[in-house]
Structure formats: structure tokens, C-alpha cells
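Priority: medium. Attachment 1 of 2:
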């Protein structure tokens, strides 16, 4: 299926690794010109090179979205690279672990700033041009934890729930009749480098073995079962995002799409 993304210009925040990199690669594969963003230049260059190897088009921007000035710099760099942004994927964020009553107020504020307000900054900077051209796509990357909160990541899960609310609030009035759609994608457990390291550490503790296949079987049996029988990879998320940002998905708006293999026990 041709998703009609050729010529579309995309900015994926937090795309130097993990889910963000998977999204960037999937969009580039579909013909979009992708701007990858992060704070580590070497990792960004690696993603850009991987995209080039599959025949895709990619540029890189470096910056911290935790301040208004940093977000402005990222947008200016992106516009200088590709001329405009038709599609924004708000993926940047952090995933700290902390006990509920032991998490200081400043940590809550910092996580909300990095996971939510960073997205607000990018929307405010890029939506006016989308409105002017009468077309645009925004994807908010949330988490299945937004509807099934994790006890040891209270500020993270709360921030991801805020992303769901922000998506719906945007389309109700601010972006009504503009040609811009906003949707949320909520991944469950996705095998990133960080998850691989976690599983290898657990394997030593629980005796799952040394090879990856045995480790995955042990994890599914003892900790993280999944009705689909496998875990997701970043490209799974990327394929879903690619469809949602395409012109073919113009009637999908304000929705939350869980991509977790059915592991979240909820009907919405």
C-alpha cells in the first residue's frame, strides 16, 4: 500500500534510539523526509546513516526540548534542513523509576516538563504553519502505562496520561476544521536497548540462560506475559505511526492506539 508520504516532511523528537529511531526509519522507508532529533550527535548520525542505507532521506538536529529556547533552536534547525514540517511526532521523554512517596515535588515538575511541556512547546511552534497550509499531522507517543499505571513510575505514568488528554483537547477546538489531525500511540513493552539490558540482568538473577531466545522465554514465563506470544520492536510502532500520519488516515482524529500485543487489560 502506498501511504502517500513521499515529499512529506517529518520531525520525530527523541529519535536518536529506541522507539523514536524505529518511527523515523519507518517513515523514511515510506518516502518521507525525516528530521531525527536528540541530544547525542553520534547516535543521531548512526540513525541518519541507517536511513541512508535503506534509501531514505534524513537530517539531524541536536537540542534540549526542556526549555523554550532549546525547543526554538530545534525548530529553527529543522526548518533550515527541510524547509517546513508537515508531520510532528512527539516522542521525546524520560522513563525514571521512583517510589511514590519518596519522589520529591521537583522530580514531578521535571518529568512533566520533559514529557509533556516539551510536546506543548513543539506544537505551539509548528502548528501555525500547518494551519496556514491547511494540512498537518501530530502524533503523541504515550504509553500503555497511561491507562494501567505502574507503581514504581508514578510521575512518568501520570505524564503519559496527560498526553492522552492533550490530544483530545487539541482537536476539540484549537485544531477543529484545520486539516490537522492529532492522535496518540501508546506502546506497551517494546524491545529497545534498555529493555535488552534489563532482561539480561534479570536472566542472571533468575537463571533464564545466556542466549536471547531463552531470555525472552524466561521473561514471558516469569514476568511479562503477552497474549500475542512475542514482544514488540520499535518498527512495530513505526508502522502504526506511518499509517496514522498518512493522507489515508484523514478520518482518524483524537484517538488513542495501544500497540502492546493485547497485554493491557482494558477495553479502550
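Attachment 2 of 2:
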Amino acid at each position: 500500500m502506498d501511504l502517500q508520504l513521499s515529499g512529506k516532511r517529518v520531525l520525530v523528537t527523541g529519535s536518536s534510539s529506541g522507539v523514536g529511531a524505529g518511527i523515523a526509519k519507518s517513515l523514511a522507508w515510506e518516502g518521507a523526509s525525516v528530521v531525527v532529533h536528540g541530544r547525542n550527535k553520534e547516535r543521531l548520525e548512526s540513525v541518519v546513516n541507517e536511513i541512508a542505507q535503506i534509501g531514505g532521506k534524513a537530517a539531524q538536529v541536536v537540542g534540549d526540548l526542556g526549555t523554550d529556547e532549546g525547543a526554538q533552536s530545534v525548530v529553527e534547525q529543522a526548518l533550515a534542513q527541510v524547509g517546513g514540517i508537515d508531520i510532528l511526532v512527539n516522542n521525546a521523554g524520560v522513563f525514571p523509576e521512583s517510589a511514590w512517596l519518596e519522589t520529591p515535588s521537583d522530580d514531578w515538575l521535571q518529568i512533566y516538563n520533559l514529557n509533556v511541556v516539551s510536546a506543548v512547546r513543539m506544537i505551539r511552534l509548528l502548528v501555525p504553519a500547518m494551519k496556514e497550509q491547511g494540512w498537518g499531522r501530530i502524533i503523541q507517543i504515550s504509553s500503555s502505562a497511561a491507562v494501567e499505571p505502574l507503581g514504581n513510575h508514578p510521575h512518568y505514568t501520570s505524564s503519559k496520561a496527560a498526553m492522552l488528554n492533550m490530544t483530545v483537547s487539541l482537536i476539540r477546538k484549537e485544531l477543529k476544521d484545520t486539516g490537522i489531525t492529532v492522535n496518540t500511540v501508546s506502546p506497551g513493552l517494546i524491545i529497545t536497548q534498555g529493555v535488552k539490558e534489563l532482561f539480561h540482568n534479570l536472566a542472571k538473577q533468575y537463571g533464564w540462560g545466556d542466549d536471547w531466545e531463552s531470555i525472552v522465554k524466561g521473561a514471558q514465563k516469569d514476568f511479562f506475559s503477552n497474549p500475542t506470544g512475542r514482544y514488540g520492536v520499535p518498527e512495530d510502532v513505526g508502522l502504526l505511526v506511518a499509517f496514522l500520519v498518512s493522507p489515508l488516515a484523514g478520518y482518524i482524529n483524537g484517538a488513542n492506539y495501544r500497540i502492546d500485543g493485547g497485554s493491557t487489560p482494558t477495553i479502550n
